[in-house]
Amino acid sequence: MRIKAVLKVLSFISFIVALAMMPPYFLALFDGSYDANAFAYSIIASITMGAVLSFISRNNLFNLGIREGVGITGFSWIVASMLGALPYWLSGDASYTDAFFETMSGFTTTGATIFAEIEELPRGLLLWRSLTHWMGGMGIIVLSLAVLPFLGVSGMEMYKAEVPGVTAEKITPRLHQTAIRLWSIYIALTFAETILLLFGGMSLFDAFAHSCSTIATGGFSTKNNSIAYFTSPYIQWVIIFFMFASGVNFSLYFMLLQKKFRDFFKDEELRAYCAITVLAALSMSVTLYFAGMFNGIEHTLRRTFFHVISVMTTTGFVVEDYNLWPEFTKFIIIILMLMGASGGSTGGGCKVSRFLILGHQLKAEISRLLHPRAIITARMNGQPIPRGTLQSSTAFFILYSLLFAGATLITTAFGIDVLTAFTGVLTCLSNVGPGLNALGPVENFAWLPSAIKWLFSFCMLAGRLELFAVILLILPGTYRK
């Protein structure tokens, strides 16, 4: 690995974090709140780190290989979280462990929080929480790719390592053009939701903060009760729509812009994503309606669709305490946490595409048993699934299972009950936010031991970077030439 090449890009990441802290800093100054100094010192620290790293790596322009791509991707999230934790810590609102957990949760768009009284935080910190979601949603690396070519750095390996999903394909010939197109769509969705939420009676601050969290499928809210604070059905339906839209592969929106409507609606993952959402919501609605949980069909459908989409897209917004729901619905929630959204979206989880690939592979294997002499190929969207994709999907599930089992075992060793540990690890690996039991939708993560917070922070990072990038970071071979 070319260490100086990695440091060069990390210096740029440090400057991005410093720049992103400017709006919360000016808001804190405008409000006259106590967090203004914390942001000022954090900006200085970020700029200083960026300058030092830039000096160390000066005159080093490289085409990045897989090792550099993996190193930059993994360390970018760690460096961003280290620097991003400073405002919480320096303002005195959290220990550094809690501050790092909150920031990692923000950048990885997990949405798990250690704050019990969110509404007591100053607006500067609340804005920073939402911005960490927004930056992490499309990816700090993808943002960097829009500028890095002008710095003499090629970043396809970074793009492959960072973009969530089974494959990372460029939608334009030049990678920085791909990054710009993706961010343009991302910004347009954020702007559209902000406007619609304003029409629903939200303040500009709340509308923007919740739009950042929604489009990033993050889940941080400015209210203690999350979206339940806003009793307007209109606001809830708007957020439902944009959560669902953010769980769609963003490259499909590029197809819409090119008027390739047939390709858009023929996409197998999109159809499966829609079908699973509707099936899960309707089955849960019937259960909740006859259990007398809600009044009226619209009320039942709205609350159910909200939580199904919130969990499946790994956004994590809540309007109800589903800890109190029937066991059948809680089991569906666990399945949706594991499954996640579409590949190439801002959502987490294992991705619908991977389950489709394994399903096609299983179907092909069964067909081979029935017809031993036939040449049968697993296909998706009418195209043969490459052998490498089949192998990587299988390896992903094996690695996911091992990490999940190991982290759950460690968590229970600290005396935490199995359901809490199980869903706590699951919600962090899948970047969902709330779990079940003691980590349910009305609880927070503040009570966890510090060691478990660091473990969960690792799980959030591993889940956001699709496991392999993080595992490669700890292998000695990654750093050998």
Observed structural traits:
two-stranded antiparallel ribbon; single chain; 481 residues; mainly alpha; 22 helices; 64% helix
Characterise the protein shown here.
The chain is mainly α. The protein is about 65% helix and about 0% strand. It has 22 helices and two strands. It has a two-stranded antiparallel sheet with strand order 1-2. β1 and β2 (about 385) form a beta hairpin. The radius of gyration is 22 Å and the shape is globular. The N and C termini lie close together (about 5 Å).
Whole-angstrom Rg: 22 Å
Which stretches of 5+ consecutive residues score pLDDT under 50? 149-159
Order of helices and strands: HHHHHHHHHHHHHHHHHHEEHHHH
Q: Major sheet: size, sense and barrel closure?
A: 2 strands, antiparallel
Output mean pLDDT.
Answer: 88
Helical content, roughly?
55-70%
Basic shape = globular
* Number of helical regions: 22
How many strand units? 2
In spatial order, strands of the major sheet run: 1-2
Q: Termini distance?
A: 6 Å
Describe this structure in a few short sentences.
By secondary structure, the chain is an all-alpha fold. It has 22 helices and two strands. The chain has helices at 3-20, 22-31, 36-56, 66-84, 86-90, 96-107, 123-138, 140-145, 156-162, 175-199, 204-215, 233-246, 250-257, 261-266, 268-290, 297-312, 327-339, 352-370, 387-412, 418-429, 450-464, 468-473, and strands at 379-380, 383-384.
